[in-house]
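Have a close read of the entry that follows and walk me through the local backbone shapes. See right below:
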Amino acid sequence: MTGPGGDLLDLEEAGAVLAAEAARFASFGWMRGTSGNLSVVTSREPLRLAVTASGLDKGELTAADVVLVDGAGRAVRGGRPSAEAALHARVVRLTGAGAVVHVHTVASVAMGRRRQAGIALRDLEMLKGLGQPADGPPVVLPVIANSQDMGVLGDRLVAAREPRMPAVVVAGHGLYVWGAGPREARHRTEIVEWLLELELTEPEDRTR
């Protein structure tokens, strides 16, 4: 799997990293109850991902609480992965990412309702953390409709993807963010969530 800096790790190391990342996000209130899931690539050929196990408190995970899945999100080793493991695998195949974060934040759900056509972001220093200039043209954070069918949801993500934005909001659901490894995916998640929280405070009739 890809570690914090993008290096491949084994499954045990992957589990320890994902447990630590999940505890961090849970401490922010972004993975309440058993919600949310994280993944990291352990192999490219064949594609394998370590994914947090389904139905567990994400603030209490251990290194053993991961499932190894294949490039379609099917379990290869371990227990039961989230149904969303298939979407994690789809994101990795599409973007070449090494890690994917899925969190259920209030700001992402609220802004997904407000801006169903996408969330335009510009003139913000925090955009630099996503590799975008602070004073450049707007970059759009896509918003896609939710579906319980991961194939349908994946197709919507592919169609809406903005290459300059390593994230997508799923309306009524939450936020997906990806990066080269867990650390980059975490940093990007924190930045995108900050941007969403800021947008949530802005009046809806402001000039964009």
